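Chapter summary example.
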Amino acid sequence: MSGILETIKTLTEINSPSGNADEAINYVKNYVEDLGYHTKVTNKGGLLITVDGTNENKQRCITAHVDTLGAMVKEIKENGRLALDLIGGFHFNAIEGEYCEIQTQNGQTFSGTICLHETSVHVYKDNHNIPRDKEHMEVRIDEITHNAQETKDLGIEVGDFISFDPRTVITQSGFIKSRHLDDKASVGMILELLKKLKNEGTKLPHTTQFYISNNEEIGYGANSSISEDIVEFIALDMGALGDGQSSNEYTVSICAKDGSDIRHGLFGAGIESSHAMERTHLDSINATQELLYAYCLSPINE
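The structure predicted for these 302 residues follows.
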């Protein structure tokens, strides 16, 4: 099975909800610096990777984001459990029953489960009618705690980040199913591309900035940091699958997008069940990698 799937699996298993993605950014930074590339961490915590090309005046930017959906502790409840505030655009039904980790500001990590407060059908006979929302969903912490003070004594506070178990599985049939393939599949492809370019000794026709965003899920990414010399901009991100879409899990998805005074576009692997338990196939990843490689080696048309 292709090494790209293992690279993606490694990335998905690094906790990195928007606002708390430093560990994932550092992993990518160390990976590409070991290959010999120059990097810069921006003031907002994103990562710029510069690959020198023959033409330095007309540059490209290719961006992907390593931050993911997640949550924050909104409130420590009287029963010692945690109320959540969501990070990113998804719904509570997508995380009901999910294992999670709470990362405290003093560096501790606690495990837990995201539950409907009225989960037990033995007690709450009509629990299927209860809305899955902030009022009814909570984190059950895997510690002995009976009230808010005992939870605080563990070191957990309002504002602590909550990360979801990715549950990443690679199948013999070529699928990878996991949380956070949006957009760690694309970050994995960029890492594999940079390794390929270095092993080949390939010189790109244009200097290219690879920007790994740490806050895309909450609304900002590479646009805040790109050089004025950039004339083409590609967002490497998922193709969302569903009714009315022509994308699938076995091909590259290409989306036309408008930008600033820059030629702008988006393409990526086709991802099933976006912002939930996602899945794609090696064929889609390979097709996306081939397009990415061909694009990087092509000259900018005048």
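To summarize the output: The CA atoms of residues 165 and 245 lie 28 Å apart.
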